[in-house]
Write a structure and sequence with these properties.
Radius of gyration: 18 Å
Bound molecules: zinc ion, fe (iii) ion
Distance between the termini: 40 Å
Shape: globular
Largest sheet: 6 strands, mixed
Strand content: 25-35%
Strand order of the largest sheet: 1-2-3-4-5-6
Number of strands: 14
Order of helices and strands: EEEHEHHEEEEEEEEHEHHEHHH
């Protein structure tokens, strides 16, 4: 069983810290800044950072990788299709890797970037997903490199994971994502309830993560493009008949860009 904590970085990033408490070994996901990780290691001098997992090449995800590698010698895993500093292992779709004695499966999930990968641990009782900037809580990443079709396919793949999978994304964007979700589905009671919950958490300075696949299926408009009401809202906004789930996705994503 891994213990997972968030190390806040920049204004709204989380660096996920995976801890094997018996071996006192840890791994980090997407260290955009080395400082929060080095601070933690300084406060835990008997711990070893053994692995660095990277989802994609953006600076807020890789900015601390080189420094952490130089200080700790940790093994750096990252997407094969992107330039990742100090990468030791180039990962492709469906690769299986072992980190801290746990198996992780790699999914290629293009859209936000073309080589973006997610890491999935298929534990029967507590599956985990590190989704980077692809699947956010109540939202999804912007399409910087990929097409709407690619992103829709990537999100559909993640949405098909077991409902109780815990979802760890890289940004605290949940509240602004929920504002958009309410605009898409003003009558969805699950979105309203989540909005109330996350508003209360954020007012207390609490993190809104992890999410779960089950909660995302109920409240994330980008996973709900098959719903008639979501299609109708997308049609209204885009002034066209979005005749496929992928077209609904494309219209919603472009609306969200300026929302
Ligand atoms: Zn990014
Ligand atoms: Fe990011």
């Amino acid at each position: 069983m891994l213990q997972i904590d968030a190390l806040p970085a920049f204004s709204d990033n989380y660096i996920w810290l995976l801890q094997d408490t018996t071996q006192k070994r840890c791994a980090v996901v997407d260290p955009g800044d080395a400082a929060p990780v080095l601070d933690w290691l300084n406060q835990h001098p008997d711990w070893v950072l053994s692995d660095i997992l990277v989802t994609h090449h953006h600076f807020d995800h890789v900015g601390g990788v080189e420094q952490l590698y130089e200080k700790t010698g940790a093994k750096v895993w990252g997407p094969a299709l992107e330039n990742i500093p100090a990468r030791h292992v180039a990962l492709n779709d469906n690769d299986q890797i072992n980190v801290l004695g746990h198996e992780f499966k790699v999914f290629l999930v293009p859209g936000h970037t073309l080589g973006h990968i997610a890491y999935y641990h298929a534990d029967a009782s507590a599956p985990l997903l590190f989704s980077g900037d692809t699947l956010f809580a109540a939202g999804c990443g912007r399409l910087f490199e990929g097409t709407p079709d690619q992103m829709h396919h990537s999100l559909s793949r993640l949405a098909a994971l077991p409902a109780h999978t815990a979802v760890y994304c890289t940004h605290e964007y949940t509240l602004s994502n929920l504002r958009f979700a309410v605009a898409v589905e003003p009558k969805n009671p699950h979105i309203a309830a989540r909005m109330a919950q996350v508003t209360a958490w954020r007012a207390e300075g609490k993190i809104s993560l992890p999410s779960s696949i089950a909660l995302e299926l109920l409240t994330n408009p980008f996973l709900r493009v098959n719903e008639t009401s979501v299609k109708e809202k997308a049609d209204e906004w885009s002034k066209q008949d979005n005749d496929s789930p992928s077209a609904v996705f494309a219209s919603l994503r472009s609306k969200k860009d300026t929302f």
